[in-house]
Amino acid sequence: MMRQRGLFVLLLLAFIAVPFIAGALGNTYMITMATRVLICAMVAVSLDLLVGWGGLVSFGHAAFFGLGGYVVAIAATHATQGGDIFGWGGTNEALIAWPLAMLVSAGAALVIGALSLRTSGVYFIMITLAFAQMLYFVFVALKVYGGDDGLSMTSRNLLAGARITDARSFYWICLILLAVVVALVGRLLNARFGLVLRGAKASERRMAALGFPVYRYRLVAFVIAGAIAGLAGALWANLGRFAAPDMLSWLRSGEFLVMVILGGSASLLGPVLGAAVFLILETQLAAHTEHWQVIFGPLVVLAALYMPMGLWGYVRGRSS
Amino acid sequence: MTLVLEQILNGLQFGLTLFLLAAGLTLVFGIMGVINLAHGSLYMMGAYAAALGAQWTGSFWLALPIGLLAAFAIGVGVELLVMRRLYGRDHLAQVLATFGLILFFNGLLAWQVGRAPLLMNGPEQLAGFIEVMPGLPYPIYRLAVMAVGVLVAVGLWYLIARTRMGMLIRAGSTQREMVSALGVNIAQLFTLVFGLGALLAGLAGVMVGPIRSVQIGMGEQVLILTFVVIVVGGVGSVRGALAGALLIGLSDTLGRAFAPSLLKLWMSGALADGLGAALSSVLVYLVMAMVLVVRPRGLFPMEG
Amino acid sequence: MIAALELKGLSKSFGALRANDDIDLSIREHECHAIIGPNGAGKSTLIGLLTGEILPDRGQVLLFGEDITHWSVPRRALAGLGRSFQITQIVPGFSALDNVALAVQGRSGHSFQFVADARADMRLRAPAIEALEQVGLSARADVMSEILSHGERRQLELAMALALKPRVLLLDEPMAGMGPQESALMVQRLIALKGQVTIVLIEHDMDVVFALADRVSVLVAGQVLTSGTPDEVRADRRVRAAYLGGEVA
């Protein structure tokens, strides 16, 4: 527990240092890159709540991420270019749009989770993947909102009426939100709810025999994870001022899973580390060759075969 | 009426193609307990090998064995190098490793063959149309594809129900120790079954080549539909795979063909087109959701 | 007097196999009722039907007169039906105390509490420590459950069932895999429980059964062959023929 807290502080300090280092180097791309890491880390932490702590291998988490992105982009489009959705004229205010993104993603997670959690194991993997693909196709078919091409935002959301123009301020916002998410998930995991979720991963039969209706606890976890992914999607759409079906694709879902496992599932901070390593590795490889997947794919296979504890396992191993 | 009939034939043909994929995937899962995301990649590799083979040799009949052999060989290689280290591991590791394989195969083709789709001609002997009903000409090649699908279904039934290997397959899924005690080399059996699954996926890939274009990413699209088929049919059941494949093949094809025009009965043209497009692309998932509500373990759940 | 647990015409088939066939059984409050039978007699199915993991084709299960036939597993647990598992079901990565505290949490209302640290909650910890003391495991409270010895895990298994404060306790082969000494200790602990809680005991070891049970029911081929005191059952010719055979002779 102490070590966990120490590493949390260490990681936080590293993230705080990024804008200063980038400033000193005059490298603004570095901040964008680091913002991406923060947002993906947020998704990975939420996914790990299901995968690592709940034992629920969801292969459709990108759906909630993409949905959050689209909510923000659609609201902004109506606010700036007119028109309405379900009679609502949209908004460009983050304090409304971001919670709304979480709410919509949570709603979708409630429906998809209610159906998917009736099954388990390999069924669950395939069904979450299939439902995510369904939402993907919905956005591809939605020509009103750009269809295949995606939907651009003319500007970032306003935060309490103030513009977030520079990369740095947006970075700080993302960092604060990630820290809040990690802290809250950390609390949740050791609260009564989290213990039930973790117990059900080890033995669903036991938890049922102790009087816990396991399905309901899992569904609530699924909804919470969906809402966090929705928030991350809202941030992502703001970062690139763009939402596209690609955000919901099965490839994204797979990448988020890779981040979780690469970093170390069921470790709270492992997914943050995983997101950082994944994105840095991907950009570095892509900078060297267009065909980076030929190298990256086998690396993922090796990680799956020989690093069951993920990178976090090594970090923890060293420091103990 | 002939239009509906034609679409039903298209749906059956698509369903039988899906069956080839679903049968292999469900067998591998039922017997080895492994979920293989890279099954679609084997289908893609089969299609690419055949398309390239057809370019070199100029003959579909030479391309066919090239595609099958490539898919089988790649399947066996994947089993020996990766899959056998995943038996008994949790689904998470299996998902991750096979996801890595997808990235690898997609990257490999983009690098070596390029991103442009390949076109492939069907065999000349099967070119042209045949009048399956007065006023309904239908491509002979597609009928041949359906015939192959039916033959494979019968062959698989025979293999599983009537042969020694089938007996081992049925026993191996539940009683691994018993099969080992019989002196059967489980490792070899698994490699063989995985290779068989790869072969079927490759066959589907080769046959689809002349109907749709051969391109990177074709594997994942079909993989997800294959998952839907298996969820609907019941994991591990070949019978379920057949039923699910036909149901999904038909609903997908008919939905795409008729959803917009059906909606036009109730609403304006533009809206019906938009909604119809959306509805037809999600129809199969709605079918899956309905099956799940009624029968969470699929139409033909595995016993036990 | 209302029976603690009553089974009426309970039947369950798997395909052609009649695993449980028209079972009538009445378990009195505060008795220790053993259910014995050869392998394949349908004991596991019966446990499943009692706990709710398996639903019957026909028949009824009554808990203190209330029909619980169609209740879910957790609902039965909260109504006072506790159980232990034949194959230990504990949560690795949690200490022994954490495991038992989960059971306390189970009976203390819903667990949709997301912030407060449950491990610092004395309302959960205190009763859990009590249950650990009851099974003689309090010295190992803070040890990670996966490090415990096999015998200690069996004790933990029992402590989790007890912490639910059940009115009826189903013990599914509590001595499974234990050595003779551990087994004898466990018998002592169970004897101490007698009279406080109704116990349904599924057990292979005849010495254990005859040491603990007030009454014994013999299950053969999915049916109740006979019920009675240990002495009556021991003397029953049919039981000897069907089951006990050389073990008693």
Description:
- The complex is a heterotrimer of chains A (320), B (304) and C (249).
- With 320 residues, chain A is mainly α.
- Chain A has helices spanning 2-25, 28-53, 62-81, 94-116, 121-141, 167-190, 192-202, 204-209, 214-240, 250-263, 270-288, 293-306, 310-319; strands spanning 151-152, 158-159, 162-163, 242-243.
- In chain A, strands 1-4 form a two-stranded antiparallel sheet. A two-stranded antiparallel sheet of chain A has the order 2-3.
- Chain B has a two-stranded antiparallel ribbon.
- In chain B, strand 1 (129-133) and strand 2 (136-139) form a beta hairpin.
- Chain C starts with a strand and ends in a 5-residue tail after the last helix.
- Chain C has 249 residues and is α/β, with parallel strands linked by helices.
- Chain C has two domains: 1-80 and 167-249, Rossmann fold (3-Layer(aba) Sandwich); 85-165, no CATH class.
- In chain C, the strands form two sheets. A six-stranded mixed beta sheet of chain C has the order 6-7-8-3-9-10, with helices on both faces.
- Chains A and B meet through helix 5, helix 10 and helix 12 of A and helix 4, helix 9 and helix 11 of B.
